[in-house]
Amino acid sequence: MISDPDPPVVGTGLDVLPFDLVAKRLGFVHGHLVSREDLLLALIVLDPHGDVRHCEDRIARPDAPTIATMSDDYHLPAAICRRGHVVTRDATSALRTAKCATCGADVLTECPSCGNIIRGSYIVPGVIGFSKEYSAPDFCGDCGKPFPWASRQARIYELMDLLEAEGLDPAAELKAREQLQALADADEDEEADEARWLRVKRLAPTLWEKSGAQQIITTLVLAEGRVRLGLPPV
Q1: 3-class DSSP state for residue 140?
Q2: How far apart are CA 38 and CA 28, in angstroms?
Q3: Do the Cβ atoms of 26 and 34 come closer than 8 Å?
Q4: What residues does each domain of the chain span?
């Protein structure tokens, strides 16, 4: 029998890579070294009907998984209902439905504000990976506006994050944060809420003028209050 002097390869078609290069690329993507045993384990998980010997064969076969560079990465569109129930993290699959099976609400795959996809599974083509827990994002990754299911508390927390970037006097920032924390409580009446928003406007005027902050605030204040606070219409 003639032995093959070439190293084992992973690849498909025209893109066949030596195992040591595969390991280096996986190590770069995931931040740790990947052994031959790690790759075999990944192949076993991907092919539950196989065994170690079967997967050993797959490493040398030209139809085994390929490794792609990070420049090819992208998000699949997710399908999420207007109340925040995740239908699927891959809206291109057959799992997508027009209505939510949990609550009957319309299912969205695009941001209602800008029309870009709701980001679902993160894909690096060819890289062997394992599914991570996915939860509905509260805000659009493109325009920054809150999705319909984002809670009042989530929107207030986002305003607090924006407040931290303003570089305010520490005392003014603390007072503004206290007002925002109180506004996270939906039990206060409209008059009390409006007074707190006015204090935030006075304490953090640069935050108040930013379009990103106003996009969030306008979703938390009733129409009459928006007029009195000088906010743009929704």
Answers
A1: coil
A2: 15
A3: yes
A4: 9-60, 73-123, 152-229
